[in-house]
Design a protein that fits this description.
This protein has one domain. Helix content is 0%, strand content 25%. It contains no helices and 6 strands. The strands form 3 sheets. Strands 1-4 form a two-stranded antiparallel ribbon. The structure holds zinc ion (ZN) (2 copies). One zinc ion binds next to loops. The site of one zinc ion (ZN) has 8 residues, from loops.
């Protein structure tokens, strides 16, 4: 069994794409998979491109994938 040491902590944060509901327009949110939250490296940083809205240029933010959090 391969084990990789990971020193980064992850914690679930609210998915801004669906506003934490897990659904967008009656469909399961693609960003969080319907969970309503996404795993984000801690300390969580709001996506600098969309300012946490998950939307950029009227489309899904490419940096955060719509989650509203900086994932890297
Ligand atoms: Zn979502
Ligand atoms: Zn973003």
């Amino acid at each position: 069994m391969l084990q990789t040491y990971i020193d980064t902590e992850y914690a679930p944060e609210k998915c801004f794409h669906c506003n934490g509901t897990g659904h967008v327009n009656g469909k399961i949110c693609e960003v969080c998979g319907g969970q309503g939250d996404v795993l984000v490296a801690q300390p969580a940083i709001v996506c600098p491109l969309c300012n946490g809205s998950g939307i950029f240029d009227n489309g899904t933010c490419r940096v955060c994938g719509g989650s509203g959090w900086a994932l890297l």
